Amino acid sequence: MKYNLIKDSRNDIDQFLKTVLENRGIKDEDYEEFLASNNVDIEGNTYDNLDNIKLGIETIWKHIENGDIITLVVDPDVDGICSSAILFDYLEKAYKEIYVKNQNKNLETAINQGKITGHKIDTNMSDFETLQPQGFATTNLTIKSDFYINWDVVTHTGKGHGLTSDISINPNTKLIILPDGGSNDVEEHKKWKEKGVDIVVIDHHQITNVSNDAIIINNQSSDNYTNKDFSGVGIVYRVLQAFDDLLFLSNADNYLDLVSLGNISDVMNTLSYETRFFIQSGIKKESLKNDFLKLLLKYTKTDTGNDFNYFIYPVDVSFKIAPPLNAMMRLGTAEDKLDVFTCFVSPMEAIEGRAGYARKTYNKCIKYKESQDDERNQLIELVDKNITESDLEQPVLVIDATKYITNTEITGLAAMNLASKYKKPVLLGKVANNFFSGSVRVNGGFPDKHFRTLCEQSGLFTFAQGHESAFGFGFPKSSIQSIINFFNKTYGEMDLQDSYDVDFIINDLNTISPSDFYRIQANKYLWGRGVEEPVFALEDIPLFFVSASLLGEKKDTVKYTYRNIDFMFFKRDENDKMKQLLEKYDPKKNYSINIVGKLGMSTFMGRPKCQVIVDDYEIKEKSNQEILDDFIF
To answer: Residues 505, 491: one domain?
Structure first.
């Protein structure tokens, strides 16, 4: 294991936050502005900066007032669910609020015209009709909520996006709304437009095909909208703001919690001031309004923080809330996915009562997550058996798992585990029609931090799309050996030992105190994509195995306590050296350890404890004299 201090890092724990933000590219002169962006929308975009937004909201409202069937296509991921949920809930409540206002106005007019005297209503009067619930029968949950718009809510049977063939649309629909997808479905737009159906797309994905048959509201195609790192639910939120102005309401900010959830789950770049502002706004205590999200926090035992301003840590959303929801969206039936949607748009009394719909739905999410994990582990086991010594000599593992991949949704998850295990990039895929495609995952310590760009610029890949260390790939089957040769030529002479860029190197634990751990934990709400959690290298820590233990049902977690700091080694297999030494250590030998990891606080039975989450480590034998020196304070 190697680690290097990030270039020009202050390595100053007393200037912790400035050090970390400088290391993320935030210059000293921008420091105050960046922190201000947590509380102020500095970027200054408004909904008016989005092309077609006025036409879009007027079209939607026209169909609502006409009582037309409106098809809402729920995109099957967390951002998609949040996008559809806030649009659905806002419009339902807005329609009811506007209707009640109009009823009261008409009632006042009727009284003034003498149609109503006291409590007696003129039996010939036809001015009033009772607001009738339209129902929402596209879920297998029998939740009884009053929905007043004529919805046809649909989602995909698979992991499709937009107007794909795996959704079923009511032939009598007059409007199709596509939140978080559908910008490039040009042929489908044309087909439905020819049937007299209006289409409104509210999206954030790149546009490769320009549609003339749909109303596209998309930040990527709107030149005046400067933030291109805003997720689908963020663009829907801007639509709600436009509705607020159209309808003389002020309800859009009731959905900031789901705006935050969608942006975090879709891994939007938090260096964008606008994205950062809405993530931070949505994790505040006063913003938490969605009843199902409240229950998810309870079910997942998500750490709610211990400062006064913030409620949810984004990193906990990424690792606790989003994974089971995404597992459901990837593997669940259409009905199961709509159960999740229904919970997000239903009041607490409907989902938490004796029937326990929220808990049942969450339990299904967990089962799908467990099933996903089982499938991933089975795939890893099958692939592992066929990796040869010759394969392991390669700098990059290119694995054709055509015989073993039955569900492409878990390919990326399996590739991630293999990359971590073998400490090298993994291309895991299958061949179909002589085309090899799948997922790439790069181990955290790999020295080349621009692996995707290398692949894309090689000229050998048909596509390499995504993030630098996690992306989808594809190329002709006939190019497999050429690509293996390319990686050998590129990396063959390089030292590919895991190498970590760290923010701080601490060579004496005496130089950090519990107050430093508290300070680090207090800034946990800041971290996200682009402003990643700080990484520490802690050097020359003595190992006393009497202070170590194996935890968990599978005994795959090692806990080592030294100087009142808990060092946590999670998900350790039988080949892990720390685990092996703990199980069979020689008391005559002395060891020290260098650790790369993240610092913070944990809480047990209400008591805070300093904690280090270990990403990687190396163990060294020490002489008796070195051990004695460790006791000299």
So the answer is: no
